[in-house]
Amino acid sequence: MTEEVVEVKVSGGGRESQSTPRSPFASHRFMNGTTPLASPMRKAIGYFGEVGRFTKLDDWLPITESRKGNAYYAAFHVLCSGIGFQALLLPCAFTTLRWTWGIVCLSMAFAWQLYTLWLLIQLHESDSGVRHSRYLRLAMAAFGEKMGKLLALFPIMYLSGGTCVTLIMMGGGTMKIFFHMVCGAPCRCPLTTIEWYLVFTCTAILLAQLPNLNSIAGVSLIGAITAVSYCALTWIVSVVKGRLDHVSYGSQREQSEVIMVFSAWNALGIIAFAFRGHNLVLEIQIPNGGTLDALHKYHEHDTTKLIIALTSLLVIINCISSFQIYAMPVFDNLEFRYTSKKNRPCPRWLRVAFRGFFGCLAFFIAVALPFLPYLAGLIGGVALPITLAYPCFMWIQIKRPQKFSTNWYLNWTLGVVGMILSVLVVIGAIWSIVAQGIRIHFFNPQ
Q1: Where does this one sit in the cell (predicted)?
Q2: Distances in whole angstroms, Cα of residue 23 to Cα of each of 10, 20, 125, 361, 410
Q3: Which one of 6-20, 61-75, 105-119 scores highest in mean pLDDT?
Q4: pLDDT in tens, 21-64
Q5: Model confidence over 363-383: pLDDT tens digits?
Q6: Which of 188, 190, 382, 404 has the most CB within a 10 Å radius?
Q7: pTM (2 decimals)?
Q8: What's the CATH code, domain 69-436?
Q9: d(CA 137, CA 140)
C-alpha cells in the first residue's frame, strides 16, 4: 500500500522508468529505480507521505479532511456515540440475570469493549507508518481485500444506516411525547408520527451540513452531556420514587429452563449492545414500544410533567447529535465514490445533495418499515463481532504476537467467545420474535 502511494507522489505526473539508471548522478529520477539507495529513500518518502498527508483522496473526504482535532474532540465523539438510550434497557437484562450476575456481566462487557477499543486505537497506525482511518480499511489490511469486505462491509454500512433509521424513529417519537407534554390537551392540530419523523429528519439534515468530523465536535459535546444527563435523571427519579408495592422486580421462576436460557442469551445481547462506538454498534430495541414511551407511561402519574418533558428534550438533542456521527461513514463512502472517479474534491452542492439524499432515504425506511426495531437484535447480532471479536483477530493478524503467549491466548479467547456470543444473540433474537410475535405493517408507524 505504501509503495503505491509513493509512486503517485514521486512520479510528478510522468511515466516512471522501470529500468535501473546507469549512474545515480545521471538523472534526478534515479530514486524511481531499484538501486540500493532507491529502496530506503522510497520507503522514507512513503512513510512521511502516509503520516504527514495521508493520501490525496483523504484530504477531500469528510472523515479525514480536517486533522486539527485533539484528544478532547475524540473524547466528545466517543462519549456521544458510546452512550445512548439503549443503556436504559439494562434493567430488562437485570430482571433476567438478577443483581449479582447482571453486575458481573455488565462489568465484564465494559472491560471487554474497553480493551477492544484500545486495540483499534493501537492498530490505527501500523509499524510501516500507514494509517488505517476507517474500520473497513483496517479489516482489509488484516484479512485481505476480499475477506475484509466480506466480513466488515455489510455490518459497517448496516450499523451506520440502520442506526440513523432507528434514531429517526426514536427522536421523532420522543418529539411527539415532548409536544404532548408541553402543549397538552389544548392543542387542536397535533402532528402525526410520520410528520414528527419528518421534523426530526429535516433538523438532522440541516445540522449534517457541517463539513467534516472535527466540525461536529461541539455537536458531539452537547450529545455527550445530554446522554449522561438523561441517563442520570432516569435512575435518580427511580431512586427517589422508590419501589412500588404492586410490582415484582424478580424474574419469573415458573418459566421452563429452555425459556430461561433463551432469556439469558437475550439479556446478554442487551448488555452487549449497551456499549457502542466500535464503528457504531446498533442499539437493541425491545418489541414493546420505545424506551421513552415506556418511561412516560410508567411515571406519568407519579412524576411531574417537567421531569418527563426535560428527559424527552434531552433524548431529542442526543438523537440529533448522534445522527451526525453515525451518518458520517455513509457520507464519507458516498463522497469517496465521487472523488475516486473524478479525482477532484466533491463540490459543495453535491455534498449537500448527498447528505440530503441519505436523510430522505433513512426517513423513507423509517416510515416504510416501522417494524424494523423488532429485527434489530437479529441483524445486530451479525454485526456484534465488529465490537467484540474482529479487533482481537485483527490484532493477531497485524501485530503477530508470539504464539502461545499470554497476549496470543487472550486475543484468541476473546475473539472466539465474541463470535459465540454473536451466535447466541442471534438465536435469542429469533426466539424472541417467535415467542412474542411480530406485527408486520408497512407505512404505518405508531
Answers
A1: Cell membrane; Endomembrane system
A2: 19, 9, 36, 60, 53
A3: 105-119
A4: 443 334 444 344 444 434 443 443 343 333 334 456 777 888 77
A5: 999 999 888 777 766 776 777
A6: 382
A7: 0.78
A8: 1.20.1740
A9: 5
